[in-house]
Automatic annotation (TrEMBL):
This is ATP-grasp domain-containing protein. Keywords: ATP-binding, Ligase, Nucleotide-binding. It holds the Pfam family LAL_C2. Residues 118-322 form the ATP-grasp domain. GO terms for molecular function: ATP binding; ligase activity; metal ion binding.
Length: 420
């Protein structure tokens, strides 16, 4: 536990990146907040919850660390925390540089770098998956020659289904290699990519058959607690998630295998404290790790856990190290069902949006977010950022929540027409 207090009498936390709700929750827990954020993602809405702010591209570690040292000297904080993908490595480097508690740089790097993760698992004889790093169509052909088809090509780093391709036959090889290399020419913003060199190399993996789930965990000094298992539905290219639900409908036997695999995996990468979001494929050869992150899952998974289990993992991530939240001792029991359904209209220009008020009046409604209006363009569904909104629904069971979510999402009509 952390017992050093700042002069105000309240412990102080440095929150790197994330959303407005994260600094709000930190303040509600009784923490003073120092916030590091991109300038364009900070506004007056943050003011009631933030004591000091450092506004910069926090992915620039060489620029970030000297400024954080100076800020720490003036306004000492007891830990740095991040609940966003882009903030995980900067946060680990801050804690390491200042001698503060937190996940090691080594563990965070293992989770961010999928090739390093695969080699670590191979060394531990855990979740075997054939994989290699490549840079060309020839590299893909050599991998296919050894491991057969289909295979997956994806960034060594990054998340959110960005740049993930499935190669089904030989004709796809050069097409996918060219499409992957073309991602390097896209004008990405600092908040889009965790690493500027994301598309120089790619990871080739054997295709893992079967449905995908994710396992949501909280760890306390190396003791891992499964909070929830999330069932998923994918669409678009086959890798973009269009629906989630909790609690899982898997059999007790399968859930037991998954729980053991994930806790062994978290031990293997050295995760000691805080949240984990681990994606797992239920293959014909047993469950296999896809990837993992030392953060809470995106796509409103935390909201589902709050509804289904009464656990706000964000509050745990922010407050447990300060003794403000009691650690979980066992996995929580479900209180009901929760589901999120993403709104994915046809690509084109939006000409009409209807159904919003009707959905908000529905008894099963929990939350609705819609990010487009008439005149906006909807891109083809290729990665998570292409989704234009979501509906969260509740139910007595997961099956009922899923049905409610689909019904409410279908009631939102986003009509598009081809862009001239």
């Amino acid at each position: 536990m952390i017992d050093e207090l700042v002069p105000s009498g309240r412990p102080r936390v440095l929150v790197v990146g994330g959303k407005l709700k994260h600094v709000r929750k930190a303040r509600e827990l009784g923490l003073d907040v120092v916030h590091v954020q991109f300038p364009n993602e900070y506004d007056r809405g943050h003011w009631p919850y933030v004591d000091q702010a450092l506004l910069l591209d926090y992915g620039d570690i060489d620029r970030l660390l000297p400024l954080v040292r100076a800020l720490h000297a003036a306004y000492p904080f007891q830990a740095a925390v991040s609940l966003s993908e882009l903030g995980l490595l900067p946060t680990a480097r801050i804690n390491e540089a200042l001698g503060l508690p937190g996940e090691s740089v080594e563990t965070v790097e293992l989770l961010l770098d999928k090739w390093r993760m695969r080699r670590q698992l191979a060394a531990k004889d855990l979740s075997p998956v054939a994989s290699a790093v490549g840079r060309s169509g020839q590299d893909i052909r050599e991998f296919v020659k050894t491991h057969g088809l289909p295979i997956i090509v994806k960034p060594v780093r990054e998340s959110g289904s960005l740049g993930v391709f499935r190669i089904r036959d030989q004709a796809d090889v050069d097409v996918v290699a060219d499409r992957y290399r073309s991602l390097d020419d896209v004008q990405w913003t600092a908040s889009d990519l965790a690493f500027a060199d994301s598309f120089h190399d790619f990871l080739m993996e054997e295709f893992l058959d079967g449905p995908e789930i994710s396992v949501e965990t909280l760890s306390f000094d190396g003791r891992h607690v499964i909070v929830a298992v999330t069932d998923k539905e994918v669409g678009g290219t086959g890798f973009v998630e269009i629906g989630h639900s909790q609690p899982s409908g898997l059999s007790a036997e399968t859930l037991g295998e998954v729980r053991q695999l994930v806790t062994d995996f978290l031990d293997a990468v050295g995760l000691r404290n805080g949240p984990g979001h681990t994606e797992v494929k239920l293959t014909s050869r047993g469950p296999r790790i896809v990837e993992s992150h030392n953060r809470i899952g995106g796509d409103r998974i935390n909201e589902l856990a709050e509804i289904a289990y009464g656990v706000d993992m964000e509050r745990y991530a922010l407050g447990v190290g300060f003794g403000l939240v009691e650690p979980l001792t066992t996995s929580p029991e479900p209180r009901g069902g929760a589901a999120v359904r993403f709104i994915t209209p046809e690509a084109g220009r939006v000409v009409e949006v209807t159904g919003v008020e009707e959905v908000r009046a529905d008894p099963a409604y929990v939350d609705l977010q819609l990010d487009v209006k008439p005149g906006d363009d909807v891109p083809p569904l290729t990665w998570n950022e292409d989704k234009v909104g979501h509906v969260i629904a509740r139910g007595a069971t997961a099956a009922e929540a899923i049905a409610n979510g689909k019904r409410l999402a279908a009631a939102i009509h986003v009509r598009t027409e081809p862009v001239p």
